[in-house]
């Protein structure tokens, strides 16, 4: 599939994701000359064109420092609002009419799971799905069975090669860069195995809470929200044998299911008082777990994973601990991959302590990618651009998602005790928490 799409249809244009990520991405693509297409916003809200443009303006102003007025005007002039119910055939009739002269529309489903089947059905029944491409957002189901049911619904309307499942972590430059770092550096490639690596820690920490989406969050929790998708994707990129897409899937296939015995769930103080949260909710806002990977490369090396809200810092970071060297008092080398804001890389090296004794002291070598490489495109910008081109390599596949659900299945809705923790900490304090030697400091504290 090589021809570029010739229209964008944004279902859920009135929503949170559209305002925070999708509209700013469409604006950036327009500014860079990559989006010269009609854009249709679809939602139930009865917005007229002015209302749509006002909302688009607000989203852009919040996302960028300085608005490029020519780019904004170009985008606004190409946008059309189509208001109607997601289960109403008239909505799709109006959309068909609007798309009459297009051959390859791209449908972005930025809508809640509750209306997903209606929209896919509407696109199928109206015949639009036959010539369109579709981008779908997580959650891809809430367990293995529902993910498979969702896959069947999608396959019933869209060809798999025209279906794009967003795990926006795959579109982040820093995450994609894991492969370049591993396979592009003779310094790293030979040591990337159990011979030299003691353990790997992956942290996805947010200093903020549910940001007004507590009702949605309460039905998902930290495992479904980020561990099942983003964190496992990062683990697969760290574990894979070669940069081939097939090897990422292969790495996921060799991951053992998580076990309740090596998993800790937490909930921050005050969570149950938030509007939208069920009384006595046992949804986890923090999870820590240890992943095992059954390959020759990783046998015996624990991958410690943790994710949570209202933690001490916002940081997405991998810390790779190397095995200790035998020299003097050398401490284990640490390699840090910062994947979120302030992305970059850090390496703790032992250098000689000044003085007469043969002692060493660890010193950090640190590179900030923003300073070194300049502005990189946002994940959503890159992913929408790819989908417009029909490029699949930065999207999750149906098989990937199936494996991810298999891995987290034993800790979903289990009978994991939920341990309370104070906001602004690193989660619940548990005796003998994993990992054995404790978590390395991450974010600013780890520099
Ligand atoms: P919203 O809750 O903001 O919903 C999007 C739009 O869908 C709303 O503006 C509303 O439009 C319509 N809608 C909402 N609830 C219903 C309902 N019960 N029945 C029918 N229509 C409804 O969703 P988000 O924008 O937050 O998310 C969209 C998708 O993206 C979801 O699948 C979400 O899981 C996913 N996602 C969101 C992220 C985020 O940061 N927001 C991050 C990652 C994924 P109207 O009433 O005008 O039709």
What's this, in brief?
This protein is an alpha/beta fold. It folds into two domains: 7-137, NAD(P)-binding Rossmann-like Domain (Rossmann fold), CATH 3.40.50.720; 171-374 and 416-446, Dihydrodipicolinate Reductase, domain 2 (2-Layer Sandwich), CATH 3.30.360.10. Helices cover 33% and strands 20% of the residues.
Task: Spell out the blueprint of helices and strands.
Layout: E1 7-11, H1 16-31, E2 39-43, H2 49-63, H3 69-78, E3 79-83, H4 89-98, E4 105-109, H5 116-125, H6 128-131, E5 133-136, H7 144-155, E6 163-165, H8 173-183, E7 197-205, H9 214-218, H10 221-239, H11 245-253, E8 263-268, E9 286-291, E10 303-308, E11 315-322, E12 334-338, E13 344-352, E14 360-368, H12 369-373, H13 379-389, H14 398-408, E15 418-421
Parallel strand pairs: 1-2, 1-4, 2-3, 4-5, 5-6, 7-10, 8-15
Antiparallel strand pairs: 7-11, 8-9, 9-10, 11-12, 12-13, 13-14
Helix pairs in contact: 1-2, 1-3, 1-13, 7-14, 10-11, 10-14, 11-14
This protein binds NADPH dihydro-nicotinamide-adenine-dinucleotide phosphate.
NADPH dihydro-nicotinamide-adenine-dinucleotide phosphate is lined by residues 12, 14-18, 20, 43-45, 86, 110-115, 137-139.
Written overview of the protein:
The chain is α/β, with parallel strands linked by helices. It folds into two domains: 7-137, NAD(P)-binding Rossmann-like Domain (Rossmann fold); 171-374 and 416-446, Dihydrodipicolinate Reductase, domain 2. The protein contains 14 helices and 15 strands. The chain has helices spanning 16-31, 49-63, 69-78, 89-98, 116-125, 128-131, 144-155, 173-183, 214-218, 221-239, 245-253, 369-373, 379-389, 398-408; strands at residues 7-11, 39-43, 79-83, 105-109, 133-136, 163-165, 197-205, 263-268, 286-291, 303-308, 315-322, 334-338, 344-352, 360-368, 418-421. β1 (7-11), α1 (16-31) and β2 form a beta-alpha-beta unit. α7 runs antiparallel to α14, α10 (221-239) crosses α11 (245-253) and α10 (221-239) crosses α14. The longest helix is centred in the middle third of the chain and has 19 residues, at 221-239. The model has no long low-confidence stretch (mean pLDDT 95).
